[in-house]
Design goal:
Blueprint: E1 2-13, E2 19-20, E3 23-24, E4 30-31, H1 39-52, H2 57-60, H3 73-86, E5 89-99, H4 109-120, E6 127-132, H5 138-141, E7 145-156
Parallel strand pairs: 5-6
Antiparallel strand pairs: 1-4, 1-7, 2-3, 5-7
Helix pairs in contact: 1-3, 3-4
Bound molecules: magnesium ion.
Magnesium ion is lined by residues 8, 10, 33, 39, 42.
Length: 157
């Protein structure tokens, strides 16, 4: 068994769509970033890469590389899942938390779980997504950005 943790933050920016686990969530602002800035997908990739001892997404998909400008993070996640299987591991369980004041995530939670599970190639039951606010405290509470954390459990296949 291997366990990995992932954490990511992106700042809000005007004129950007808000993409979380591949779901375009209606909101006046999206997240700034070199790729599609899918903060949840990024935390999930880092959790899996951490469990594989393969560094982080910055090493695999450098933001200095033009190939990843505007990249669909769910496609990158599928690449990480394929690396996981090349290394002889399978995903047992994944849980995630989004840290944000707004928008409300519950109407999109199941679609996010399904998207993550599909990209990784596991059943939806293995993927959990939830959200919390910080009671107005910190950058998330001031609605300057969104944080995401993920923990992944892998086993040698
Ligand atoms: Mg990121």
């Amino acid at each position: 068994m291997r366990v990995g943790i992932g954490y990511d933050v992106h700042a809000f920016a005007a004129d950007r769509p808000l993409v979380l686990a591949g779901v375009r969530v209606p909101h006046p602002r999206g997240l700034a970033g070199h790729s599609d800035a899918d903060v949840l997908a990024h935390a999930v990739m880092d959790a899996i890469l951490g469990a594989l001892r393969e560094g982080d997404i910055g090493r695999l998909f450098p933001d200095t590389d033009e190939r990843f400008a505007g990249a669909d993070s769910m496609r990158l996640l599928a690449e990480v899942a394929s690396l996981m299987r090349q290394r002889g591991f399978e995903l047992v369980d994944l849980d995630c938390v989004l840290v944000l004041e707004l928008p409300k995530i519950s109407p999109f939670r199941d679609e996010m779980r399904e998207n993550l599970a599909r990209a990784i190639g596991v059943e939806t039951d293995r993927v959990g997504v939830k959200a919390t606010t910080t009671e107005g405290l910190g950058f998330e509470g001031r609605q300057e950005g969104i944080g995401a954390q993920a923990v992944a459990l892998l086993e040698r296949a």
